[in-house]
Automatic annotation (TrEMBL):
<feature type="domain" description="Terminase large subunit GpA endonuclease">
    <location>
        <begin position="241"/>
        <end position="536"/>
    </location>
</feature>
<dbReference type="Pfam" id="PF05876">
    <property type="entry name" value="GpA_ATPase"/>
</dbReference>
<dbReference type="InterPro" id="IPR046453">
    <property type="entry name" value="GpA_ATPase"/>
</dbReference>
<dbReference type="InterPro" id="IPR051220">
    <property type="entry name" value="TFA_Chaperone"/>
</dbReference>
<feature type="compositionally biased region" description="Pro residues">
    <location>
        <begin position="573"/>
        <end position="586"/>
    </location>
</feature>
<dbReference type="Pfam" id="PF20454">
    <property type="entry name" value="GpA_nuclease"/>
</dbReference>
<protein>
    <submittedName>
        <fullName>Phage terminase large subunit GpA-like protein</fullName>
    </submittedName>
</protein>
<feature type="region of interest" description="Disordered">
    <location>
        <begin position="553"/>
        <end position="607"/>
    </location>
</feature>
<dbReference type="InterPro" id="IPR046454">
    <property type="entry name" value="GpA_endonuclease"/>
</dbReference>
<dbReference type="InterPro" id="IPR027417">
    <property type="entry name" value="P-loop_NTPase"/>
</dbReference>
<feature type="compositionally biased region" description="Low complexity">
    <location>
        <begin position="553"/>
        <end position="572"/>
    </location>
</feature>
<feature type="domain" description="Phage terminase large subunit GpA ATPase">
    <location>
        <begin position="1"/>
        <end position="232"/>
    </location>
</feature>
<dbReference type="InterPro" id="IPR008866">
    <property type="entry name" value="Phage_lambda_GpA-like"/>
</dbReference>
Length: 607
């Protein structure tokens, strides 16, 4: 807040974790410029919806409860009051609240103060206008005393807007003195320690901080007291941009026990670990895109597993199908507790996807079953099929339309910043008036980049030794998997690509060889498992699913998420004997009318 009001500093950048008072900083700066230095102000949120929420939930209560602001912003009683949801007028200036996804709200508005919130979640371009943050900053060119503030929790390394801005700044970190030895230092996650029991059970309640200079032990009270005596220090030359980094260890609202507990829970999967790294440490997540060595994978194939048979611990089967111009390839993956997985089968259906013959083979494929060693029979719960590159899309839609309970049509996107790995569905079949067609095709969107990163992380897990349990996510490869398939499984590499038009870099997957159907099918099968809700299954449910007969196909799993219903994964039981047909109703006796000699009600009186 001091840097924003410093006449020598034009731009301020804050890379932060969540819940460190950042929104209050924006509120305070807005109040300062309204009351002390009236100016045209723009507050920019990632979307218009978030802009409206900030205006309603944060700005309005602050103005209402602050006398010096309340007298300067008129009450919203009339159309010309100057107090609207996204625009507030006050003597000497105005406050405009915009969304980064709205190009019209960023144009033709000269502004002296720009306050940009959560910039890492801005779209790459506001329509066709270009970078929304750059568009907003151009609004300040007419002011010699302009002020620009941008802050956000970071996202993916190399593709994060706030990270790029912070690298251009003087990189200020908060140095605190050790309560015992007085040595100044920056708080680091690596210095947080906690105890374990002899059995290896973590004890978050023993979390403490260790001085990096002399090993002094700090409890929470020591840490909070040190923060009160800390100071900001720049670690790079000042070139017009003041940059600050802060994470939740500096917050007086967070105990280290809570941080450690969240860490132990988050590290179970790469996706939750990434979110924790961004929101708790305020650091970018580095996507590890190095492909595992296919030869090492070939050597570690399990001697106990055979292609075509499902292990006993498998509870559900999902299938990923990749459509090519002359064939359709499908991989059957089995899933167990902790999202352990195994390749159960691999099929290739030769033929032109534009013709009916290959789809007839897939019809028969949907009814196939795979046995476990105990004789339990499994059938696929869900098949995710790519809608193709355009030449076979209509054929895929037509086939998916015939099997709405088992088949999910998907479309892959390469974004690492997707809100969810699997999104949707959206209706593809609509009438000319835009209404949804009953029993039409639903299209699911899959963030394939996230699942590829997860797959490569899980392929790198080491095999357990001395009877230890398999780690969550471990991928089993059976005998019968050949070298060509394994090379397809690791046929992509994560690289950093710079966009020449916007100047921003992004991470994307690129093929290292022509054929990569194995990794595509794996990702689609993983998306199907996610859609079934397997990520949220409890250990008790996994045990139940593998130990007893599952629900009948017509009954969806009670714990499955909203979306496509989950069919049974085992052979359905024999149908009960049909009930005997109901007896024909007895003819009702009708009284005779003595006047006419006919049954009563034959002409009138019917109801």
């Amino acid at each position: 807040m001091d840097a924003v009001s410093d006449p020598l500093i034009e731009e301020v950048v804050v890379m932060k974790s969540a819940q460190v008072g950042w929104t209050e900083i924006i509120n305070n700066i807005v109040g300062y410029f309204i009351d002390q230095d009236p100016s045209p102000i723009m507050v920019m949120q990632p979307t218009l919806d978030m802009a409206e929420a900030w205006s309603t939930d944060r700005l309005t209560p602050m103005v209402r409860d602050t006398p010096r602001l309340r007298v300067k912003i008129a009450e919203a009683k009339s159309r010309d009051s100057g107090n609207k949801l996204l625009q507030k007028r006050f003597p000497g200036g105005q406050l405009v609240i915009v969304g980064a996804n709205s190009p019209s709200s960023l144009a033709s508005r000269p502004m002296r103060v720009i306050l940009a919130d959560e910039v890492s979640r801005y779209p790459a371009s506001a329509g066709i206008e270009g970078d929304p943050l750059g568009l907003a900053y151009k609004r300040t060119n007419n002011f010699w005393n302009r002020r620009k503030l941008a802050g956000s929790t970071p996202t993916i390394a190399g593709a994060c807007r706030i990270e790029a801005k912070f690298e251009e700044s003087d990189k200020r970190f908060f140095f605190v003195p050790c309560p015992h030895c007085g040595a100044h230092q920056v708080l680091k996650w690596e210095q947080v320690r906690w105890d374990k029991t002899k059995a290896g059970v973590h004890r978050p309640e023993t979390a403490h901080y260790v001085c990096e200079h002399n090993g002094c032990i700090w409890d929470d009270a020591d840490r909070w007291g040190a923060v009160l005596k800390g100071e900001w220090r720049a670690t790079a030359p000042f070139r017009g941009i003041a940059g600050f980094h802060v994470w939740e260890a500096y917050s007086s609202w967070v105990k280290l026990q809570s941080t450690v507990t969240a860490f132990l829970e988050a590290r179970k999967t790469p996706e939750t670990y990434k979110v924790w790294t961004n929101t708790a440490l305020g650091q970018t997540w580095v996507e590890k895109g190095e492909a595992p060595d296919w030869q090492r994978l070939y050597e570690r194939r399990s001697q106990e597993l055979t292609l075509g048979e499902a292990p006993e611990w498998v509870a559900r089967l999902t299938v990923g199908a990749d459509v090519q111009r002359d064939r359709i390839e499908a991989s059957v993956w089995g899933w167990g507790e902790g999202l352990r997985s195994v390749l159960v089968d691999q099929r290739v259906f030769h033929g032109d996807p534009a013709k009916a013959e290959v789809w007839k083979e897939l019809d028969a494929f949907l009814t196939e079953e795979w046995d476990t060693p105990s004789g339990r029979r499994l059938r696929m719960s869900k098949l995710a099929i790519d809608t193709g590159d355009g030449y076979s899309t209509t054929s895929v839609y037509a086939w998916a339309r015939r099997h709405p309970r088992v088949v999910m049509a998907i479309k892959g996107i390469g974004s690492f910043s997707a809100a969810m790995p699997v999104m949707g569905p959206t209706w593809v079949d609509v009438t000319v008036r835009g209404t949804k067609v009953q029993r039409g095709v639903q299209l699911w969107t899959v963030a394939v980049s996230l699942f590829k990163s997860e797959t490569y992380d899980w392929l790198k897990l080491d095999q357990p030794i001395d009877g230890e349990p398999y780690p969550p996510g471990y991928i089993h490869l059976p005998q019968g998997v050949d070298a060509e398939w394994l090379q397809q499984l690791v046929a992509e590499q994560l690289v950093t690509v710079k966009n020449k038009r916007t100047g921003f870099s992004k991470r994307e997957w690129q093929k290292t060889r022509d054929r990569n159907e194995a990794i595509d099918c794996r990702v689609y099968a993983r998306a199907a498992a996610y859609a079934l809700g397997l990520d949220r299954w409890s250990p008790a449910k996994w045990t139940k699913a593998t130990g007893v007969r599952l629900a009948a196909p017509d009954l969806p799993d009670v714990d499955a998420p909203a979306g496509p219903a989950e069919p049974d994964a085992t052979t359905p039981p024999a149908r009960p004997p049909a009930r005997p047909p109901p007896a024909p109703p007895k003819p009702r006796s009708r009284a005779i009318n003595p006047l006419t000699g006919k049954p009563r009600g034959s002409h009138f009186g019917r109801r």
